[in-house]
Amino acid sequence: MTAATATTASAASAQGQDSTTDVRLISFNDLHGNLEPPSGSSGRVTLPDGSSVDAGGAAYLSSHVQRLRAEARNSVVLSTGDSIGASPVVSALFHDEPTVEFLNSLGVKASVVGNHEFDEGLQELRRMQFGGCHPTDGCQFRESFRGAKFPFLGSNVYRTSGAPALLPFSVEFSGGVPIGVIGATLKDLPTVVTPEAIKGLKFGDEVEAIDRTANMLDAIGIKAQVVLLHQGDNTEGGGPDDCRVTPGPASQIAAKASPKVDAIFTGHSHQQYNCTIADPAGNPRTVIQGASFGRLLSVLDLKINRKTRDVVRAATKAHNEIVTRDVTPDPAVTKLVDEAKAKAAPIANRQVGTITADLLRAGAPSGESPLGDVIADAQLEATASNNAQIAITNPGGVRADLTHASSPAGEGDGVVTYGEAFTVQPFANVMQTITLTGANLKAVLEQQFQPSGTRVLQISKTLKYSYSASAPIGSKVSAITVDGTAVDPNGSYRVSVNNFLASGGDGFTEFTKGTDLAGGPVDLDALIAYLGAHPAVSPPPADRVTLLP
């Protein structure tokens, strides 16, 4: 893998200016309904020198898209998934209808499904596609909802019968040539959503689906092809166009997928990178991702041969454009966002608690985070009637920081509003208390460390342990205590988790061995109750997880 490089002008001129047409593809990924400019670390983009700049916000995103389109005679706007789901309250209160309206206004032509498009199940995804009022809540944002003007794609999404559940591709005509847009989501999607959300569906291998669809497009004469892949790699730092990635699933897929595919937009991992990876035929191919929350736009400039209708691969140019906030925001989008804010305000601006300092979701070197600690303590307190001794939550369920800055409602520093708490815990996961043995608990903690990466669970103050970074996988965890007493492998412990973890989500399959299940409140309600019962919450000391050499 090498850093993407600008192509020399001679490569393009060799084809002859009259024999090619220029097309600009513009994509974003993992918007998650962030119509307002995201705050804290979620609203900044890291630059090559390590500094950062504020970025994102739907009205600014729209202005940047309009400028990028004006610079190119032919352009197509795309989404690489998770545009909806896990959204802030101004979108989520209305089941993300305002976000779909925003995507329509942007002129999005196609989107792959991400895992969060399935948060409310296939039927709700179909409502997002075709419109209509919510079956329970009705139409709360506007009198009617028309749905998306673009297709949701998923070439590797099937019914359990094997029949396709979604369109595998779309064809967009731009510059007088057809461009095949293939959508593929992560095959491991069932591990990151609740089983009920994808009941009746299965998810196949990404490369197999991409290859099959690429061959199908080629057979009907569609030679220019791009993939919207909702899967990504992690980075080791750098700016928006660096390629210091830790090779992961996206790069593995990109190295194997059909040479007929000319470029791959990626998502899911919320990282920024701009790379080239050789396809199976040895030809360089752009692989790019634009962070998340509307902070970057991934821009791909293609030259397509008019005669062969294929991409002149050597002339491809790619970059990630920062959605800066120093441009005039789009007035029409500003009006849409203001409408959503005004309608959500009576609920979103209600004060639910106070904090004395920022509660951040970013972890210490051990992986323990201040906000994760508070959420786990809140879940333990909310399930006390189930005789819970421990609470454990997944880091992916903590979606934003709680900052000490003035709230949108203007009540003053340290105020936490319902909307801010909702942004932190937007999934409406239900708390469940189960009984695990001490051996089960040890196995759960060992499952944090996998060859594919580390996911450190956030734990209540009653649980403490150490782990060794250098020890082999499966033998990293030691010194586990509950309320100061060493865990007995044969003992029984009441553990509270959300229903996502209880069903084995994020690969924590050991939780499925739990017994004596008792239900609890929604995770957001647990957090709100805790904030209400404990005014002036401070960041807890990071003493629950000890990192050893």
Number of separate domains: 2
Mean pLDDT: 94
Helical/strand content category: alpha/beta
| CATH class label of the largest domain | Alpha Beta
Provide the spatial order of strands within the biggest beta sheet: 1-16-17-15-12-10-9
Percent in helix: 10-25%
CATH architecture of the largest domain: 4-Layer Sandwich
Envelope shape: globular
Quick one: how many beta strands? Answer: 32
The largest pleated sheet is described as:
7 strands, mixed
Radius of gyration: 24 Å
> How many separate helices?
13
Give the CATH topology of the largest domain.
Answer: Purple Acid Phosphatase, chain A, domain 2
What percentage of the residues does DSSP assign to strands (E)?
A: 25-35%
Give me the oligomer status.
Answer: single chain
What is the name of the CATH superfamily of the largest domain? Answer: Metallo-dependent phosphatases
- Report how far the terminal alpha carbons are from each other: 31 Å
Q: Outline the low-pLDDT stretches.
A: 4-16, 406-411
Description of the molecule:
There is one protein chain. By secondary structure, this protein is of the alpha/beta class. The chain has two domains: 2-331, Purple Acid Phosphatase, chain A, domain 2; 351-548, 5'-Nucleotidase, C-terminal domain (5'-nucleotidase,  domain 2), CATH 3.90.780.10. It is 23% helix and 28% strand. The chain has 13 helices and 32 strands. Strands 1-16-17-15-12-10-9 form a seven-stranded mixed β-sheet, covered by helices on one side. A six-stranded mixed β-sheet has the order 7-6-5-2-18-19. A five-stranded mixed β-sheet has the order 26-21-30-23-31. A hairpin with a 2-residue loop joins strand 24 (449-450) and strand 25. Residues 4-16 and 406-411 have low confidence and may be disordered.
